[in-house]
Protein 1
Amino acid sequence: MKDSAPLLEMTGICKAFPGVQALQDVALDIVPGEVHVLLGENGAGKSTLMKVLCGQYAADRGDMSFAGQPIAPESPIEAERLGLVMIHQELNLIPGLTVAENIFLGHEPTRGAFIRGDVLRTTSAELLRRVRCDIDPETPVAALSVAEQQLVEIARALKEEARLLVMDEPTAALADNEIEALFDVIRGLGRDGVPVIYISHRMREIFAIGDRVTVMRDGRTVGTRTVSETDQGELIRLMVGRSIAEQIAKREVEIGDAVLEVDGIRRKDALAPISLSVGAGEILGVAGLMGSGRTELARAIFGADRVDGGTVRVGGTSLPGTNPAASIAAGLGFLTEDRKQQGLVLLMSVAENITLTSLGEISRHGVLDLVGERAKAEELVDKLRIRAASLDQEAINLSGGNQQKVVLARWLAAGCRALIFDEPTRGIDVGAKAEIYELIGELVERGVAVILISSEMPELLGLADRIAVMSEGSLQGILSRAEASQERIMELALG
């Protein structure tokens, strides 16, 4: 395959936005039928490059050719006419329309002034069969799972006679069995000669589905490898410019008196009575399978959800139930699992998001000190190495890793004594993960008590002083660092 003539060639691609050089002399070639993984840290330029290819952005410089012909699509519609179709991470379907209506949206078959519903349904059914999706074309998209919506997007791309398909983080919200089904569809496209550019930073997926991989860093391409001839270590070094040890470095910190105490907190049908404590400078990991009640516990401690009993104390002071404002005032912070929906105000600026929980400290007689707000935000942007065009950039336009660091900056600005992290590294790349681990280490050295909820076993085993294991809303046990192992954790998690 690597000896085939390229179907797509991109050379010297440059793209700048105000204050940011997003792409610099990027090169990429794609051969027929391959799955070509585009790998890199959040903010490396992967999605920007694909948006240039598919007509959403115009390159400042550089050349592109497709099937031997020069191209420069000026819109996604023009790119689709060439056979270049991109499926974005945020799916672009209309929930209120049926599957068939979404597949043909803007290209409805008509007879006179009337849409031909029979052609709509029959052709949609054929396209859905091609992507192994057994759903009725008349089903409203709102009734579909995320995995089914992904397949509808692919069916729509095939209707447009895609000759090259770009998929941006397609498995971000899929379960393992759904991922494997998607991979079967992608392999089928390859057998039909349709290459797929697969944007990801999940290492296991690269080796499961990729033929070749091109690594980007800081807006440049730093290398292309045949997947079968490389390994995870080499790819990580290319991504971040340095080696990251598989074993996460644990900072040895003397654990002080209890800062966060939970006594018998419970919620009907969600949490059995749970008691635990976290000392100053301690990281208490929380493990458990999906549905075990980990997030429910975090929300109950923070006061985001109603509880039926129990108490929470921060620094010896009891918190009133269902009152996040009181929790924040007492020094308890919560980095939610869903940073976009619950952690950020996406249309507010970086500075506004960072200072959201500390406005009282930067106000004078009820009037916000704008100079003080920017100074505080700038300090934390520098400290956390947040990559943003400016303090005024809207949070929605940041990469996932930088969005997560903005949320963390907010709680640092609030001066929290205890912090709950719910899946802090989900959806971010290995470089950003290392930075988050470093920041957690700095927090515990300052005496902050940390609860770390994670599905990543190496993360828990590497960072936590103790690990609490949950199953079906109950606390099954708390393991010391010496006692904790993947096998023991799984025994408890399985009940």
Protein 2
Amino acid sequence: MLWEFLNTTPDSFSDGGRFDSSDAAIDYGLKMVDEGADIIDVGGESSRPGAEPVSPEEEMARVLPVIKFLAGHVNIPVSVDTTKAEVARKAVECGAESLTT
């Protein structure tokens, strides 16, 4: 199973912040599907050492448009990578699926 991570943060350590706009993240999410991803996990807060925390509102502004679009346009699960219950609830309302590993 190919579980892909899509970071929508400007300071992501894994992709250098390349997908910090909704349009860039959506385009990359669609590319992930084309390349065989089985699951896309969308994150909006960097977990890199020393990263500044973001508010739930900022995190939702980053991830919800991406989740809403992808969940409505791809045939694979879209999930959210968050530690905040409020963000998780809103992501599910936008189409994110509850996944277990």
